[in-house]
């Protein structure tokens, strides 16, 4: 099925729920009623939060979403958003069609600055310290990220290498799953996922934890399926535009957390970090004119 047809099929989510509500069993009915009553809130929630509020399992929430014609909960959220918000909000929540360049600049930069401030306040120093210790003890660090988190994951791997930490990155879902399954207790896994609900990173992190790795997540504050498979959590707090399929402010917050983690790691083993930075700088200098 082509993407345009799939999108058309997911219009009018609340009408679709109404059409099948009478035939739903009790659990699915509770989920349907919750989505109907709190539709505006659901677009901001994770599948875990909806399941908890509806007194159901995450699998039951996904099952209802599939009955409505979606691949999963995230697609229902996007479809609900399309029903509830103005089209311009898919670009950025705070924009309106009449905004000039000065308003666009002010709103985009303001959102980024707010995300940095909120994330600074949300970052748990105890968890940060545990992440530093886990990575220092590990013989290898595996970094996972897909979609908009992929370039953040690649940057994290690059930065870890620059300070002398053995790191690899996986941004392909198949390689990520294989890598996760081949982990062991000497491995630390760093997973980057704003929602904490992305199937690819969720599966790979679960496999890594089951294999004995210490799992670290950089994810937005709130309940999500990823937390069940994570030993250490570094929270961002980005008021991400909930109605879009691509991240904006969350990337800025994630980069700030990664920068903080790298700096803390470098300071924890200062001499090695400086020596490795010097060595890699010399290597890279030949690639500059």
Automatic annotation (TrEMBL):
<dbReference type="InterPro" id="IPR001347">
    <property type="entry name" value="SIS_dom"/>
</dbReference>
<dbReference type="InterPro" id="IPR046348">
    <property type="entry name" value="SIS_dom_sf"/>
</dbReference>
<keyword id="KW-0238">DNA-binding</keyword>
<dbReference type="InterPro" id="IPR000281">
    <property type="entry name" value="HTH_RpiR"/>
</dbReference>
<feature type="domain" description="SIS">
    <location>
        <begin position="131"/>
        <end position="271"/>
    </location>
</feature>
<keyword id="KW-0804">Transcription</keyword>
<dbReference type="GO" id="GO:0003677">
    <property type="term" value="F:DNA binding"/>
</dbReference>
<dbReference type="Pfam" id="PF01380">
    <property type="entry name" value="SIS"/>
</dbReference>
<dbReference type="InterPro" id="IPR009057">
    <property type="entry name" value="Homeodomain-like_sf"/>
</dbReference>
<dbReference type="GO" id="GO:0097367">
    <property type="term" value="F:carbohydrate derivative binding"/>
</dbReference>
<feature type="domain" description="HTH rpiR-type">
    <location>
        <begin position="11"/>
        <end position="87"/>
    </location>
</feature>
<dbReference type="InterPro" id="IPR036388">
    <property type="entry name" value="WH-like_DNA-bd_sf"/>
</dbReference>
<dbReference type="InterPro" id="IPR047640">
    <property type="entry name" value="RpiR-like"/>
</dbReference>
<dbReference type="Pfam" id="PF01418">
    <property type="entry name" value="HTH_6"/>
</dbReference>
<protein>
    <submittedName>
        <fullName>Transcriptional regulator</fullName>
    </submittedName>
</protein>
<dbReference type="GO" id="GO:0003700">
    <property type="term" value="F:DNA-binding transcription factor activity"/>
</dbReference>
<dbReference type="GO" id="GO:1901135">
    <property type="term" value="P:carbohydrate derivative metabolic process"/>
</dbReference>
<dbReference type="InterPro" id="IPR035472">
    <property type="entry name" value="RpiR-like_SIS"/>
</dbReference>
<keyword id="KW-0805">Transcription regulation</keyword>
């Amino acid at each position: 099925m082509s993407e345009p047809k799939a999108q058309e099929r997911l219009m009018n989510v609340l009408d679709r729920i109404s059409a099948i509500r009478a035939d739903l069993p009790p659990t699915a009915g509770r989920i349907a009623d919750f989505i109907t009553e709190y539709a505006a809130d659901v677009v901001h929630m994770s599948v875990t939060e909806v399941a908890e509020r509806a007194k159901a399992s995450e699998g039951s929430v996904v099952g209802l979403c599939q009955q409505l014609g979606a691949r999963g909960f995230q697609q229902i959220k996007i479809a609900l958003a399309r029903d509830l918000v103005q089209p311009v909000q898919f670009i950025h929540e705070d924009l309106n069609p009449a905004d000039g360049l000065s308003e666009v600049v002010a709103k985009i930069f303001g959102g980024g600055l707010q995300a940095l401030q909120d994330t600074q306040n949300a970052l748990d120093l105890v968890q940060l310290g545990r992440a530093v210790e886990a990575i220092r003890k590990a013989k290898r660090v595996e970094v996972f990220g897909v979609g908009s988190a992929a370039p953040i994951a690649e940057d994290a791997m690059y930065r870890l290498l620059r300070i002398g930490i053995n790191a690899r990155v996986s941004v392909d879902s198949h390689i990520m799953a294989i890598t996760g399954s081949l982990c062991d207790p000497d491995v630390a896994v760093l997973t980057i996922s704003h929602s904490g609900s992305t199937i690819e990173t969720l599966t790979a992190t679960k496999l890594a934890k089951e294999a004995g790795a210490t799992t670290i997540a950089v994810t937005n504050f709130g309940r999500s399926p990823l937390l069940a498979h994570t030993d250490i959590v570094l929270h961002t707090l980005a008021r991400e535009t909930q109605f879009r399929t691509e991240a904006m402010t969350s990337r800025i917050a994630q980069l700030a957390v990664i920068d903080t983690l790298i700096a803390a790691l470098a300071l924890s083993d200062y001499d090695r970090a400086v020596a490795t930075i010097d060595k890699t700088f010399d290597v890279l200098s030949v690639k500059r004119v």
